Amino acid sequence: MAAPTSATSELPTHTLTNQTADDDAIPGEDTSEVTKLFAERLQAWKHAVAYLEDYVTATEKTNQAHGKEYERVLKTVKDPLKEGHHFDQSLGGIAGMFENIRSNTQGISNQHYETAKQLKGAILPIFERLHTEIKNKGKELTKGAGKGSKLVDKARAQTQKQIELLGQYTATYDSHAGSLKATDDPYILQRGVNHRLNKQVQEENNNRQDLISVQNSFAQFEAHIIQTVQHGLAEFLQVMTTQAEHTKAAYGDMVGTSQRMPLDFEWNGFIQRNNTVLIDPSAAPRTVSSISFPNQNHRSTQPLISGSLERKGKIMRSYDTNYYVITPSKFLHEFKTDDDLAKDPVPELSLYLPDCMIGAVNGAKFNVKGKDVSKGKIGGAFSMSHEMQFKAHTPQAANQWWEIICQAAGTVTNDMPESVPTSPVTGSESPAGATQAAPLQTEGLQKTGADHADPGSAVAPGTAAPSYAVPGEPGKIQWPDTVLAPSLPT
């Protein structure tokens, strides 16, 4: 910084006394005017420095308050995290990120406390000392130049009193005609004026010299004030810059920690921690065949016989193929299919065999008479007994079904089911109990029915019952030319 300009080179033109002959012995100016002016200027500097003190103090208190506020901010990410077990506790994940946020937030809070401490302990004393120097300068001005002004005023008062005394006795000199006391002799009084005037001029010159010294020192003192202010603000800037850079670095570290986190870090850790609970995508899906459950192979669940049979309808009088099962519980159940998966396997028909009557086998046919109990006890109580005509695919299969039904049926009769198909001419049925025609010879005939190969069926695989039904005409049969139509009973 450049040295301040010397005050002596720029002194004001105003002087306390003039050296001309027209100078008044007692100037009409205020000897303390210059001193008051400097005192007022020092007061202005003192107030300016006081503003800086207040600014630093307020900033110190603000940082102290910020430290407390950041402690409240820290509580928003308190440890531990809720459901924190879902996050990887090692560094690099969400838990590590929040730990980094807590650490940096605590650091910001501590930095604010540290900033407040430095402002109060290092920056504020700079301005406080400057304030004290200005006050001391004011005291110095009062004791130095201020005291000189009082001495000048006192000397001027004495000179003024002596001049007034000289004027009094010179005015009465002619009237008294030499009858004056020796002490009142105007000559003596004038010399007294000269003595006092000389002393007054000495005091004025001394005071003038003191004020010149004050003027010269003020230029340097004000330069010192400005240098101190500049130094104090530079130190203030350093403290606040450190605070700002620390805060910026803390927030930057928070963001950097989150950005360095791999996108699959938490997911991979979650998979590893819960590998016994989560689904393995590479594992094969479950199948019903691979599942076991209690009583799965209990003897009551195993059918005595199962397979497809044909049952003659009550209205259309044509045969429909369904899936039938005889269970150890002595039920004959009818199902549309043996598929347990597509539809809930609820029986379409259920016969409790101990309450049923079975007739004799006639080729592949046999009859069972009983009530349908598939609707439960209430529905079975109101149902009527019906004679149901069944037809197996082969006589051997019919015998197998018949033997098992006989073991469970309540009554076994020798009644033969009708074996004569509906006449193609009259469409009449054979009366029950009529003499049956001999079995027809069907070997070597071309079979038109599809083979029925059913898992679990008593019928041998690949064996099919020949069908001679006329398409589109239920109840009618078209016999081949090589086969004679059975004769109707007489």
What does this structure look like?
There is one protein chain. The chain has 490 residues and is an alpha+beta fold. The chain has two domains: 27-269, Arfaptin homology (AH) domain/BAR domain (Substrate Binding Domain Of Dnak, Chain:A, Domain 2); 299-412, Pleckstrin-homology domain (PH domain)/Phosphotyrosine-binding domain (PTB) (PH-domain like), CATH 2.30.29. It has eight helices and eight strands, in the order H-H-H-H-H-H-E-E-E-E-E-E-H-E-H-E. It is rod-shaped and about 200 Å long. Mean pLDDT is 77; it is low at 1-9, 15-22 and 420-490.
Condensed summary:
With 490 residues, the chain is of the alpha+beta class. The chain has 8 helices and 8 strands. The protein is rod-shaped, with a radius of gyration of 67 Å.
- Our count of domains comes out at 2
**pLDDT < 50 runs, ≥5 residues:** 1-9, 15-22, 420-490
How many runs of DSSP E, i.e. beta strands?
A: 8
Oligomer: single chain
Strand content: 5-15%
**CATH structural architecture of the largest domain:** Up-down Bundle
What is the averaged pLDDT score?
77
Strand order of the largest sheet: 4-3-2-1-7-6-5-8
Distance between the termini: 149 Å
Category by helix and strand content: alpha+beta
What is the CATH class name of the largest domain?
Mainly Alpha
The backbone outline, from C-alpha atoms, is: rod-shaped
CATH fold label of the largest domain:
Substrate Binding Domain Of Dnak, Chain:A, Domain 2
* Alpha-carbon Rg, integer: 67 Å
DSSP helical segment count? 8
**Residues in helix, %:** 40-55%
Q: Largest beta sheet, briefly? A: 8 strands, mixed
Q: Could you spell the SSE succession in H and E letters?
A: HHHHHHEEEEEEHEHE
